Amino acid sequence: MDVPNTSDLVLSLILYVMLPLWGIAGFVDWACHRHTHIERTSGMKESFIHLLMGAQVGAPIILCLIFEVNILLLFLIFLVLITHEMVAHWDVHFTAPRREISIWEVHAHNYLATIPFYLTALILVRKWDVVLKLINLEWAGQFGLEIRGEPIGGTPYYLPYYLSFMIAVCVVPYFEELWRCYRYQKQQEKSS
Description:
This protein is an all-alpha fold and 192 residues long. The chain is built from six helices and no strands.
């Protein structure tokens, strides 16, 4: 039996455990928002915050699935980690006085906050050669986007399947949330 190398094992952990788990946590978070009637409490402002956080983490994920990880992508990942934490703090600070944040939502937030950190750590381990270039300031030629020579996971099917999964469990639900908040706001304006 062939034993896979560590890099392949780390990649499988990223692709088949961490990335889907991030989507599932996002769906659980959305279900908690729906249960607590976000449209009647914190409304569109919180819904926009959720879309911003999804885009913050989603953009580098998609870039890392399509392009070779280099110093440019590492800088983007680090920037996203910092700004995502700031926006997540702002989200809870804004929301807490306006609606209940259940224990289920707290658990979902724990995953949504930590999975990007773990993904980053796993990428750093897998792309240690790029980390060394970053540390040693060997940045020449590291600021372009180079499409992967081989599709992620060694199959052309992973990316479309993963994107379809994320559209189903995160993109559609969070746009539904925004629509629900918008519709409720308009109804309230007509009632006034």
